[in-house]
Amino acid sequence: MSLVTLLPTLISAHGHVTGIVADGTWYTGWNAEMKYQNPIPATAGWQADNLDNGFVTPSDFGSANIICHKSAKNGNTYIPAKPGSKITFLWNTWPVSHKGPVFDYIAPCNGDCATVSPSSLKFTKFNQGAWISGSDPGTWVTDDLVKNNNSWTTTIPSNLAPGNYVIRHEIIALHAASQANGAQAYPQCVNFKIEGSGTQQLSGGVTATSFYKATDPGIQFNLYSKFTGYTIPGPAVQKLKRGERGHAREWIGEE
């Protein structure tokens, strides 16, 4: 392995979602330092044992840690939003070397997201981005995230039925993914209370523990090589129907 290939794997600064902006209003995300406060502040962001801004490895992709990060606990409040709301996830930091795909999933809680079992959440992928151009390492959507002050904006599916939902926002860093167990997943979960009069009920979602395998071509991937494409891991973006002026049309999120 060359020194150029090795250096990115030594970088230890990663990140977490420190805040969420919904329809122009700021909401505090989970910060692991909060666990030392008494009482622990109420947050829509799920608590996680990521004080080191750490990650979930492919060897853990079948465990509960991949759902909402390591030793995650339910968020105990909600961010209000509505179908079509713009949602921005603000990371405290993100290294430009940590290139890879970015995903947004959503799951209905079918009750209170503060008490739902994480393993029961059935997630639908509604937005994703990954490789853009070039190789070794090329340009990725994470480069845009860094340029946008470490932020990522997505849109709540239009016509989504009101209720309580968990949105799972995730970056998978590929700088060390040429090695077995080298990819780094950074899942972040946030509770949302969707308002309005939408009628779209989600169906066909899957549990996060079935999203990825360690040997998937988009998980074990040599970023520092000459490549001409990238196979995005996980389920496909689901097409969701929405009503508009009395007609139904498809909405597939932002690419």
TrEMBL record:
GO function term, MF aspect, one: monooxygenase activity
Span of the signal peptide: 1-15
CDD domains according to UniProt: LPMO_AA9
Domain Auxiliary Activity family 9 catalytic span(s) in chain numbering: 14-227
InterPro entries assigned: AA9 (IPR049892), AA9_LPMO (IPR005103)
Domain of life: Eukaryota
Keywords carried by this UniProt record: Disulfide bond, Monooxygenase, Oxidoreductase, Secreted, Signal
Localization terms from the record: Secreted
Cofactor: Cu(2+)
Keyword Translocase on entry: no
This protein's name: Lytic polysaccharide monooxygenase
Organism listed in the record: Zopfia rhizophila CBS 207.26
Native organism taxonomy: Eukaryota, Fungi, Dikarya, Ascomycota, Pezizomycotina
